[in-house]
Design goal:
Distance between the termini: 147 Å
Largest sheet: 2 strands, antiparallel
Structural class: mainly alpha
Number of strands: 6
Helix content: 55-70%
Shape: elongated
Order of helices and strands: EHHEEHHEEHHEHHH
Number of domains: 1
Radius of gyration: 35 Å
Number of helices: 9
Length: 295
């Protein structure tokens, strides 16, 4: 059995993975809060998609990949299968999006919350083990079934709590505290699942196919940065509840005010004083008589 190191670069990879999970959770909670105040179905779908990208793509999947940068197996190189890695991203985003749809389409109750948590938690666990299956190394992977079950249980509980927070938390301080808690849960699920892994190296070393971590790091980091910038821009550009309340107040105030009286028409300009000299046609002015010619 090969020796496994989960922290090859020390504290830097777990610290960055936790920071990503907290940042993605905070952005996702803010976007989920906009779902409840959206006026139309299209707006709710838009904010739900953004929340799914923030939580599923950044808080969960990007955190997973960042933590995997510190994963090493003594005696073999590690490569990644790109299609499976991309599929794990889609699984994470879709699982969170469907979970938000389950709990956010009607009145929140225990049945909806449990159903959404079960589906999302199972999707998060599927994302994790799909990402692990994308690893290519000179050996065979094995898993401890008890720890795998524990990691799935943590994923379901964490997903249920995350969905409940997404539907109930509104204040800034509560969002920050919830994001810190969600970061602990996501990282706890990841490292619990990683602790279940064992690697048995092959007797004869062979070539390892796939893409190296360094080749995947740059595009993934750029994608994460673009997603975060896009989410922040969408949040800053969207009107808040205070903005909508102010617009409604101004509209109600304008409708309540009486209309202003019409202004009297101003007389036309008379620069040379023709109007003052002429009295023809004015009331009380006699009409001039025509003089008779002499006979």
């Amino acid at each position: 059995m090969a020796e496994i190191n989960h922290f090859e670069y020390g504290w830097i990879t777990p610290a960055l993975s936790y920071a990503l999970s907290v940042l993605g959770s905070a952005l996702g909670l803010v976007c989920a809060g906009r779902i409840r105040t959206a006026a139309t179905g299209g707006q709710r779908a838009w904010w739900g998609l953004l929340a799914a990208w923030a939580i599923g793509g950044t808080a969960i999947w990007a955190m997973h990949f960042m933590a995997m940068l510190g994963f090493a197996v003594q005696g073999t190189r590690i490569r990644y299968d790109v299609p499976l890695t991309a599929a794990s991203t889609g699984i994470a985003v879709a699982a969170v999006g469907i979970g938000l749809f389950i709990v956010g389409t009607g009145r929140l109750n225990a049945l909806r919350l449990i159903a959404g948590g079960l589906f999302t938690g199972a999707g998060v666990a599927a994302m994790h083990y799909t990402g692990m299956a994308a690893m290519r190394l000179d050996g065979d992977l094995g898993y401890d079934s008890t720890r795998v079950a524990l990691s799935v249980l943590i994923a379901v509980v964490a997903a249920t709590v995350a969905l409940w927070l997404a539907m109930t938390v509104r204040r800034g301080l509560a969002i920050a505290a919830s994001a810190l808690l969600m970061g602990v849960a996501v990282n706890g699920m990841h490292f619990t699942g990683m602790s279940a892994l064992s690697v048995h190296l092959h007797d004869r070393p062979g070539d390892v196919a796939g893409t190296s971590v360094s080749s995947l790091l740059v595009p993934i980091v750029l994608a994460v940065i673009l997603v975060i910038v896009g989410l922040v821009y969408a949040l800053l550009a969207a009107p808040t509840e205070d903005d909508r309340a102010a617009v409604a107040y101004l509209a109600a105030r304008q409708s309540a005010e009486p209309p202003a009286p019409a202004a009297a028409p101003e007389p036309a300009a008379d620069p040379v004083g023709l109007r003052a000299r002429s009295t023809l046609g004015q009331p009380g002015t006699p009409f001039p008589s025509r003089r008779q010619p002499p006979r």
